[in-house]
């Protein structure tokens, strides 16, 4: 078990709860968890440790919204996501961590700007060529960012937000997306030595906080309105992008 201070344990427990909330209510809050885990634990260990907690939260999200996923959207993203994962895996072997995070932060800000502009002009991601291009761009970027920094939440939130999904369809689709992607990342993470015994023990201690956060998030999702939900997603995405730029 990692030797941590009492304050560090409190921070990890609180942020573990936010992981659960992010999966069942407000996507984007897990960016805060990524920041805290990276600050408290060694960077490589934090990546593997938080991945397992994300998978646990994914299970609760899938159970909660199993009937609401848009499988057509998910299948359309699949090829690009696989490409992004492979690019991210290769990139991790060579790129400087700080440089990678800042590049991702810039890309996220561009994604936010484009998405907001499209919404302001009254244009949605629609059927046909525009949809295929958007799925290729967002899917590749999502696969890449989740592999290198566990930071695809903001990217995919912008994609599904631009698709104008209702709250539960949004949450169900993004839940299944990350459940599949996070499990697919496990072999890569093990191969890179990111999954460790101390990390597994830490996950066992923090698992109840993730579960509590997921249940609380499910309660929130039944009461949040569409406009507030979309505003929170946008704000948290901007926060995530800024964090990646300055971290």
TrEMBL record:
The keyword Transmembrane helix applies. Its main location: membrane. It holds the Pfam family TauE. Keywords: Cell membrane, Membrane, Transmembrane, Transmembrane helix, Transport. The chain crosses the membrane at residues 32-61, 73-93, 99-117, 165-184, 190-216, 228-246. It is a multi-pass membrane protein. Belongs to the 4-toluene sulfonate uptake permease (TSUP) (TC 2.A.102) family. PANTHER family: MEMBRANE TRANSPORTER PROTEIN YDHB-RELATED (PTHR30269:SF23), TRANSMEMBRANE PROTEIN YFCA (PTHR30269). This is Probable membrane transporter protein.
